[in-house]
Amino acid sequence: MKAKFLKEFFTFPDILIMSILFLISLSFTISEWYVLKTWVALVAGMIGYAASEYLIHRFLFHLKPPRNPFFLQMLKRLHYDHHADPNNLHLLFLPVWYSLPLIAGTGAICFLLTSDLIVTNTFVTGVIGFLLFYEWKHYIAHRPVQPISPWGRWMKKLHLWHHFKNEHYWYGVTSPVFDVMLGTYKKEQDVEKSSTVRDLERQWDKDVDL
């Protein structure tokens, strides 16, 4: 792994902000590392983000274009434009104006359910940690980097199929588990090339041959 890619990743503003928040949250989590509920909350946060990675990607980011211009521009920034220009670094990462409210919201729900600040902080640590893992895997998929492990190379291949073969399959970035469970995992040779894979707005046009 070339140092320039690590620098490019961790100095990108949105990633830098999330990394700082992760380290702050982690510093409180470490002080309770010997408590079972700490590990339960940490794993719950990671699993929660892993599930949302797939569900949000499939059902929100690939949503039918909203009529409202504001929401349409928001969706274009979050994902439509990323499909149009997959290797554009400035469209690659989730913006903090999107990530922070979601993290705060899930943290608030965790606190309402547990009334425990330690559990809530640890849960948030898991969420942010997995978000950074997702961002790294997504970054690697779109940069001229060869993943070290066979698993990493396979996941990169799946994600590039999603971007260049057919946008209706392979939504998982860190794992294909939910694709397999929910029927969006296919062998590449069994899927036809989509004419709208680079233009998500057009897939809703009635005259487009999908």
UniProtKB/TrEMBL annotation:
Listed cofactors: Zn(2+)
Specify the Fatty acid hydroxylase domain's residue ranges: 43-184
Which stretches are transmembrane? 12-30, 36-56, 91-111, 117-134
The source's domain of life comes to: Bacteria
Which cell locations does it reside in? Endoplasmic reticulum membrane
How is the protein disposed in the membrane? Answer: Multi-pass membrane protein
Its protein name is Fatty acid hydroxylase
Organism of derivation? Brevibacillus porteri
